[in-house]
């Protein structure tokens, strides 16, 4: 007996969820039409490219063996920054944070600006172009 595989969906707090009373529960046949099969992930290539023989061999070798031989993955080059340049960019008291990007999980609030700049603000800013930083 084969096991039916399906993708479990995460709950979305911003979408309404149907709630049924005992008498209103739909019949099983109504639920049988729901398609939750896992779709095939796109490869990022055009359909014609996916059918090319050499690409199919590389993809199947990657899946079977974990590598494709001489496959090269392009990566950006990394350079060491000389210490004098680093000292100019960062103050001596600089300490890097433990976490570069902080995201609040399950945040239901949208990021709405507290204030929008208007023409009066633009005029004031043009008269005071050099504001000292704190």
From TrEMBL:
Keyword Nucleus in annotation: yes
Keyword terms of this UniProt record: Nucleus, Transcription, Transcription regulation
Keyword Transmembrane helix: no
GO BP term, example: regulation of transcription by RNA polymerase II
Cellular component terms (Gene Ontology): NuA4 histone acetyltransferase complex; nucleus
Protein localization: Nucleus
Coiled-coil boundaries: none
Enhancer of polycomb-like N-terminal domain boundaries: 7-127
Pfam families: EPL1 (PF10513)
InterPro entries reported for this sequence: Enhancer_polycomb, Enhancer_polycomb-like_N
Similarity-based family: Belongs to the enhancer of polycomb family.
Stated name of the protein: Enhancer of polycomb-like protein
Originating species: Parasteatoda tepidariorum (Common house spider)
């Amino acid at each position: 007996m084969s096991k039916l595989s399906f993708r479990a969906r995460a709950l979305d707090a911003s979408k309404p969820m149907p709630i049924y009373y005992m008498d209103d529960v739909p019949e099983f046949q109504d639920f049988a039409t729901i398609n939750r099969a896992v779709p095939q992930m796109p490869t990022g290539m055009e359909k014609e490219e996916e059918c090319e023989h050499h690409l199919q061999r590389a993809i199947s070798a990657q899946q079977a063996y974990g590598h494709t031989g001489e496959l090269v993955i392009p990566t950006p080059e990394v350079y060491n920054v000389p210490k004098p340049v680093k000292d100019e960019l960062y103050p001596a008291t600089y300490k890097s944070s433990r976490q570069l990007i902080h995201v609040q999980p399950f945040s239901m609030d949208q990021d709405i600006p507290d204030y929008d700049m208007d023409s009066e603000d633009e005029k004031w800013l043009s008269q005071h172009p050099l504001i000292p930083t704190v």
